[in-house]
Amino acid sequence: MCRSHLELFAVNLAIGDQQMSLAAQFGIRFRQPGEAKARTSPTASSRLQEKRTTQQSCELVDGLSVDLEDYYHVEAFAEQISRARWSALPSRIRQNTQRTLALLERTGCRATFFVLGWVAEREPGLIRELAQAGHELACHSHLHRHLHGLTPSQFRDDLARSRYAIENAAGMKVVGFRAPSFSVTRKTLWALEILAEEGFEYDSSIFPIHHDLYGIPDAPRRIHRRQLPSGRAIWEVPPSTLRIGKVNLPVGGGGYLRLFPLWFTRWAIETIHRQDGQPTIVYFHPWELDPDQPRLQGSWKSRLRHYNGLAKTEGRLQEILSHGSFQPLINLVRRREAFSQAQTLNLDDLASTKELDRRAVV
Ligand SMILES: [Zn+2]
Fold this sequence. Notes:
- By secondary structure, this protein is α/β, with parallel strands linked by helices.
- Helices cover 47% and strands 11% of the residues.
- It has helices at residues 3-17, 19-25, 33-40, 44-57, 93-107, 117-122, 124-132, 152-170, 190-197, 254-259, 262-276, 300-307, 310-322, 329-344, 350-359, and strands at residues 62-68, 112-115, 136-139, 176-177, 202-203, 224-227, 233-236, 241-244, 247-250, 281-284, 326-327.
- Strand 8 (241-244) and strand 9 (247-250) form a beta hairpin.
- It is globular.
């Protein structure tokens, strides 16, 4: 286990043991057993009604993203499962994506699906279904290769192939990108130039944390527009982090969502809203909703990263998504663009501008 995960694991254990006292320190009130049942048992319609009421009183819109790949595409097993073997393995992508769609339907959320081009070529009907359900389709590369192992020319080719497959299947333009394993780091920032040259409007690959495989720890934690050396620019939509002292703690996505207790994730989301005035950017994978997926051979570290907490993921997401207003990432970018344009126009009604600032993603 890498150092960062050891730390996270330790934090998780500590939180589990001292949950009540820590919660009290953070000002969190736990639901009583009766309350918990009452909140988890209402019908879908009453849950949506409660959510609509919440949305009316809270203007902040959060971003939701799904990295659309199968259980054998992941980095954790890349050394054991060669790409030549992918086609021979039993696919779970269709059933897990349908499960994801049902979850989003139940909770009234829309998302950005960062699709692997390899998947779009094999499941065009599934991609079309996502587009028809109102979700955004974006690019997650073609073969899930780390950017560190690609030349700029190879990256451009991979990008073009995957984008063509996704656009062809979805019938919509693709303007967003997320690198496999968040592999836009200091060494691969050149990729942003290529994305901008190819007409991508935003990237969501820079994780502002310390990690053994990815991350730029001092990168901005909020949605921002990055000026590139060429003079071009691109929006960056970083996954959510919580600032604790001088450290950014990843929250609300993937393994971190499975590792931390639900109460902690919900508190983290509320804190990002309240203290930072920012939306949260949540991400997950369809295979994380599938505790019955075939077990792959791999190192104990890989198995821990991949299989920990699978049985709890769907319930946790149900709770989080039911209590928020989650939209595709392009919607957040558009809101931020609208805010920037309002600033450029130099509106004399400063109060309105501030209100727009508060409501926009900033
Ligand atoms: Zn991925």
